[in-house]
Amino acid sequence: MLVRIVKMHFNSAYVDDFKQLFKRVKFKIANFDGCLNVKLLQHESEPCIFFTISYWNSWAHLESYRRSDLFIETWAIVKPQFAKKAEAWSLLEQ
User: Fold this and answer.
1) Contacts of 45 (CB under 8 A, 6+ apart)
2) What confidence category does residue 19 fall into, taking pLDDT thresholds of 50, 70 and 90?
3) What domain count does the chain have?
4) What is the pLDDT of residue 91?
5) Which domain range does residue 4 map to?
6) Of 22, 25, 52, 93, which is least surrounded by CB within 10 A?
7) Cα 80 to Cα 39, 45, 59, 86, 92, distances in angstroms
8) pTM assigned to the model
9) Is 83 domain-assigned?
């Protein structure tokens, strides 16, 4: 299983909009072929920082999602709202 962690630091004015956007797309991501689960976490003391954690059957499934219209369209909305460049890690669960 592949675990994908993405850290996003947003402009403060976008935080509420991002939460709403994630609520709208979470079900679609979770039902994407090969996705086992996806969740959103917000930093405890820095509310502009979020992490998504998603679980995938394989690297190929994650890459298929990253090439999908769902990802491309969602990323186009959130990327301009970053206060800092997003960071991402792909990890193998042992």
Assistant:
1) none
2) very high
3) 1
4) 97
5) 1-45
6) 93
7) 22, 23, 26, 11, 30
8) 0.94
9) no
